[in-house]
Structures are given as C-alpha cells and as structure tokens.
From TrEMBL:
Belongs to the thiamine pyrophosphokinase family. Pathway: Cofactor biosynthesis; thiamine diphosphate biosynthesis; thiamine diphosphate from thiamine: step 1/1. It is an enzyme of class 2 (transferase). It catalyses: thiamine + ATP = thiamine diphosphate + AMP + H(+). This is Thiamine pyrophosphokinase. It comes from Anaeromyces robustus. GO terms for molecular function: ATP binding; kinase activity; thiamine binding; thiamine diphosphokinase activity. GO terms for biological process: thiamine diphosphate biosynthetic process; thiamine metabolic process. Keywords: ATP-binding, Kinase, Nucleotide-binding, Transferase. Residues 188-260 form the Thiamin pyrophosphokinase thiamin-binding domain. Its EC number is 2.7.6.2.
Length: 271
C-alpha cells in the first residue's frame, strides 16, 4: 500500500512550491527566493552566527516596534559591534520602543515609519510596509525571515502565526525561534528540503485555522495517506520525524487540500 501511494504521488504530484531552512546554516543557500528581507520582533534573538547570516543576506532589515529594543540590547556588552547592525526601517505604532533607542538608530540612518492602525499588529503592519517597498520588484519571489515570532506570550505567538494567512500564497515567510521554525503550506503540493545535521529530526504538520485538512506525505517516519483528516478534534501530526535522519538531505513532500503549518525542531541558542 505504501509503495503504491509513493508511486502515485510521484507520478501525479506536481510540486508547486519548494521550502528549506538551509538559509539558517549556509551563506549560499540554493533554495533562497529573490532578495530576502529580515524582520525582528520583540522576543529573544538567536546566537550571533545566525543573526549575522540573516542580517547580511537581507536586502531590507526592519524592526517592528519593540523588536528595536531587542536588537539594541543584544549588543549591550559590545556597543561598538552594535554600530554594524542599523536597521533600514523601524515600523509600528512605536509605543514600545524606548525613545533613546529610537533616537540612536535614527541618528545612524534608520527611517521611522509610524503606522498607527489598531486593526493590525506591528508585525502585520511591518509586512504590509515591506510589501510597499517591494512593489517595483517581484514581491512574491522574495523570502522573509522573521526573528522573535514564536514563544513569549501565547496570544502574540498565535497572532504572529495567523499573520501568514495574510501574505500572498506564493510568499515564503519563515517564523524563526531558537527552538523551531514554522511556515505555512498553502493548499497544494510542496517539497521541503530538510537537513538533519542542523534541524529535526522532529517535525510536525499542524492544521491551525482550518476545520480539517486532508493530507498525504512522503519522506516522514509516519507518513499520512489521506485516509483520515488532520484536525484539532481528531489528530494532529505533532512529534513526527524525518524518514532518513542519517542522510545529509531529506526531501519531504506534502500534498494538502487546506493551509497547513510545518514546524521543525532546531537549536539556535547560544552554544
């Protein structure tokens, strides 16, 4: 049965989008789309080599309100190093960023974008502003890396996760925490390139924001064959794993009829 399903998926599934977190671990990721941007939110940032890699990959660097404090305080023991990390824009209603920190960055070239809109979070406003920056380019081709989007307050985490529903379905937005990376797989067929040396092997497929999702997969330890839907009322595919963690690269194929969140374990903490 499993072999028949694999042959059927390989024959009939046309991959629509490809994903990978290789950009976290390599300066020359072949899976990066367009010119990526970096958004920093108000939570714990990863270790220095990860921050460096994402910072210098990014065409645009944006802090969303309180994320500005996080960036500033990251270099509290090395003020000279702080001078190398000046964001292009500081966005939001700016009620959380400390005035002296805002002045510090503005005096060094950052632009302030006061976006007062109580119907959207600072993260959502920053995403919308970024889209306006990229209008003359191909917005859907540019990846977005988001630091500080997970953990912390539960309502903030859920809000940040829900924000991925509000971007174009072709857009690759990666929510990055020190223990996991999350992104939204919209309806369709996806291939995810996984690197067991750096991430996993634990991963999950989570039907957040939908009643149920019919899902078929290849490349997981416990593949889904579409015989039962994923839902909060029945079962979610948490604590799944790569099929071949001993291999350098694992390819996971996901076919879903509803939006579905992919979550993969990582360790970006100071070592």
């Amino acid at each position: 049965m499993e072999m028949e399903m694999e042959m059927e998926m390989e024959d009939e599934t046309e991959i629509e989008l490809e994903w990978s977190t290789e950009f976290l671990y390599s300066d020359y990721s072949m899976y990066t789309n367009g010119a990526p941007s970096l958004i920093i939110l108000n939570y714990i940032l990863p270790r220095k080599d990860i921050l460096d890699r994402l910072w210098f990959k990014a065409k645009f660097k944006l802090c969303a309100d309180g994320g500005t404090n996080r960036l500033y305080n990251y270099f509290k023991n090395n003020p000279a190093e702080r001078e190398k990390y000046i964001p292009d824009y500081i966005c939001g209603d700016l009620d959380s960023v400390k005035p002296e920190i805002l002045d510090y960055y503005i005096s060094r070239g950052s632009q302030k974008k006061l976006l007062y809109d109580q119907d959207h979070t600072d993260f959502q406003k920053t995403l919308m502003f970024l889209r306006s920056l990229e209008e003359e380019e191909s917005f859907v081709k540019n990846d977005v890396y988001v630091l500080g989007a997970l953990n912390g307050r539960f309502d903030h985490t859920i809000s940040n996760v829900s924000s991925l529903y509000k971007v174009p379905k072709e857009k690759h937005v990666y929510l990055i925490a020190n223990e996991s990376v999350v992104f939204l797989l919209n309806r369709g067929n996806h291939k995810i390139y996984c690197f067991p040396k750096y991430e996993g092997p634990t991963c999950g497929l989570l039907p957040i924001g939908v009643t149920e999702a019919n899902v078929m997969t290849l490349g997981l330890k416990w593949n889904l064959d579409g015989s039962f839907p994923l839902s909060f009322k029945t079962i979610v595919s948490s604590s799944n794993a790569f099929e071949h963690p001993e291999q350098e690269i694992n390819e996971v194929i996901v076919n879903t009829d509803q939006p579905l969140y992919w979550s993969v374990e990582c360790d970006l903490n100071e070592q």
